[in-house]
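@channel anyone free to eyeball this complex?
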Amino acid sequence: MAICAAIFLTVGSLLAYSMVKFRRPPEDDGREPVQIYGSNQVELAWTVIPILIVFVLFLATARVIHAVQDARMPPDAIEVVAVGHQFWWEFRYPQQGFVTANELHVPVSDASHPTPTHITLLSADTDHSFWVPQLAGKTDLIPNRQNSMWIDPREAGVYLGQCAQFCGMQHAKMLLRVVAESREDFERWLASQGSPARQADGATQGRRIFETTACVNCHTVSGTSAHGTFGPDLTHLMSRKTIGAGAALLTQDNLRHWIMNPDSFKPGSKMPAMQLRGNELDAVTAYLLTLD
Amino acid sequence: MATMPEWRGPVGMWCLIAAESAMFIIFVVAYLYYAGKSLSGPTPNDVLRVPIFGSICLFSSSVTIAFAERAVERGDLARFGRWWFVTLALGALFIAGTVREWARLIYHDSFTISTNLYGTTFYSLVGLHAFHVVVGLTGLSIIMAFGLLGFVRKEHARQVRVFSMYWHFVDAIWAVVLPVVYIIAR
Amino acid sequence: MSDAEFALRPVTVPQTVGASRPLLDRLHDWIVTVDHKRLGLMYVGYGVLFLVVAGLEATVMRIQLAIPNNHFVSPQVFNQLFTMHGTTMVFLVGMPILFGFANYLAPLMIGARDMAFPRLNAFSFWMSAFGGLILYFSVIAASGLYGAGNAPDIGWFAYAPLTSSTFSVGHSTDYWIIGLLVSGIGSIGTAANIVTTILCMRCPGMTLGRLPMFVWLNLVVSALILLVISPLTAAQIMLLVDRYLGGHFFDTQAGGSAVIWMHFFWIFGHPEVYVLIIPGFAIASEVIPVFSRKPIFGYSIMVAATLAIGFLSLGVWAHHMFTVGMTSYANAFFTASTMAIGVPTGIKIFNWLGTMWGGKISFAVPMRFCVAFLFQFLIAGLTGIMLSASPFDWQLGNSYFVVAHFHYVLIGGLIFTIFAGFYYWYPKVTGRMWNDVLGRAHFWLFLIGFHLTFDFMHIPGVLGMPRRIYTYDAGRGWELWNLIVSIGVVFQVVGIACWVTNFLWSYFKGPAAGNDPWDAWTLEWSTTSPPREYAFATIPVVASRRPLWDVKHPEDPDWKYE
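replying in thread with the prediction:
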């Protein structure tokens, strides 16, 4: 960037200077200035110098390309498989054997002993792109193709991102949250995500409705008969901050509203309005609220 | 040095040839890229038979059209008409061969454009070429009709030459498609 | 009489009988015309009409994005808007206006009476026009069973598999495909016509080394068009095969590849942007010398640089695909080739600077637009170099930084030079001079609006805002910048209004301009304003690159120095 700024300042000021110095004076006598057709030396100079600049820039860039793309992962890197869907993110942790959605948890890494997270990128439908600006450049998720990237957060925090390749109607609301946390917090999260769904008392009516309507065609709640994979895994829904991949905050009201009519938050999302009303709707909502 | 307006025809035809070649290159690239990548269905070795007769017809038609060109340049209109007709017939034979080949593939081998990746790329590439041959045959027929009606004379040699550039181009494309489809990427 | 003699014969002036024929007859004349000047004007008129349409589409988008979580338009409409805006600007504004300029001016500049193939010229124009109509017909007709009125919403580069029949139901995508296919046939026809005209119809004495810069650059552009439109046509045919014949070119379920669409599209798409900008260079290369009162600095190098750009542009396409997961070697290669193309482009900027240096610059409106172009194109080129570095692109690609970059080139570069060309040649085409106050108002308003919008647009990109999103949440730090960007639109709209008003008003009320109001040096200024239908009563004979300079300065003609 410094090189570009320098070029801009140099050429820009020459331009500005020429505009002022060679301006036709108001009392111009109408004679033409000296007609110069070119100069081979000047041309040579301003061909060779840019070539050298480009050469240097390229070498510097090639080094970074290689460092990023061909980096080797240490053996204790976390493995995640990200699958892009219209319009949500599926995250699988193959080492721990569970599936979650939209929020990615990774351990904070540190310089002396890096524990990066390696992400394999797949797509279930059309092109997407995984972009969390503060953590890494973006890499696309393309159907029938396996891509690969890594992140190495050195500071704990919540990092926001979103899909960066136009994937359809709700491309704008395919948001990402990456939570980088301490090793202990991360292990705790892994353990809780890996366990089957909580069987809360007082939510049996909702659970029954959930398991006997179309919900199970799309959603998985581990430990129950719901094994659908078209929509996000809901086993630990309440461990997440948002629903609809960031379309709204996860509150009781929003959840209820979402189930009744997802299009009100995210028109064009692939979840149909579930045609649930009144008591049934409240019961299912109450059930889902127990899935932490 | 004044430029010659009579070069317009050949230059324009070269422009068309450049554009069409670019299109064919893309289809050939797709064909090669997808070679062997079909998930199912017949492979080239299962269904392909090299269209030797048709290819000989098409390649010789380039020779016969050159004879016709030379004839009209000399003003020998009868000879022109004869060689032109032979060219047209040879081109028609090539298309007939393609039709037969496709009928066999579709009805006998159940191999269509939607069968698998190979089907898609095969029919697209060979079909695009066949389409260009048919356009050429149409042009040949129109000029044949003009010839029979006595409208073609010695001063039209240049226009005839421009058209035959197109015909040579169609042959040249086959000279690429034939080995790529029937020999290399089996 | 040989063809050559026929072309060079002197023509007697036909008497125009009856000043005012019925309107229907006059319209009919325009529809059946094969005269390059009329076709050129129709191309330009068509392009300007669509410029206004696409500008309105952009205005609506900017209203939607001015504040977070806005509900000015629905997501579906927004997605259609950005698709139509991009497609319209590239294919129905950029290409037609540039073909229009080339059609009108190239024969005049080489001393020819018309293009090589006048009827092909007319055919190509009407094909292009028809293609545009097909595309916009989708607005009222595309959905059939799925509800009337569905413009394409797949983005102007229509990535697979979003365009497959699975993900794009209805016919909106087909209107995109077919509209562009038809218009592409027109483009190839005109490009072939331009190449043939320039190679075969030059007046005596005009060797290739004496072609005006405008003509040389249009020759390179037309040759490039011949090579690169076909890949798009091929990809679109493949997409139609997939959508209607059950083909699998881009069907990832059957082993097809989404990436190959990207390759084919960008093999067309990247050279296409050079096709768009090089005619802008062509205009600048005519305007800057005349208003600096010096010949173009380094003519041969300028031509060579343009040839280099044309050639290199065929090898940089995958810099649009850095995030797709190509190998580090592929990414490095395309980084290198893209950086390399910056060298000849930079050389051109230096040569324009060299033209101005030591001259006597007069800042008439055309020159103002060209000077702004120089600064803006410099910046755009530098952001391009930044993006050419794959690691930079991994962050900034597909974000508003890229959107800012390409609008900087296309508006700050191309549109500014098109404005310059309009103001420069308007007196020649209409015989009238435009109003200077309105012209300067247009310049300043548009300049301010352009910079408000597109300078600040880089910032949300750097802050992480991706492109093609119909809304965004508050709290990401993007709100202020989006608001400023949207405000800039107001200035641009008013500027355009000044421009259109100026040209319409001046056509009827402007003072007569004379044949050569700028004291210029190329052949078109030797014709009347506007040129007669046959342009030249006798075909000129030239001896240098600036025939009129030789006539005006017989004591110091150019041919002594060439």
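from a first look: The longest strand of chain A covers residues 78-85.
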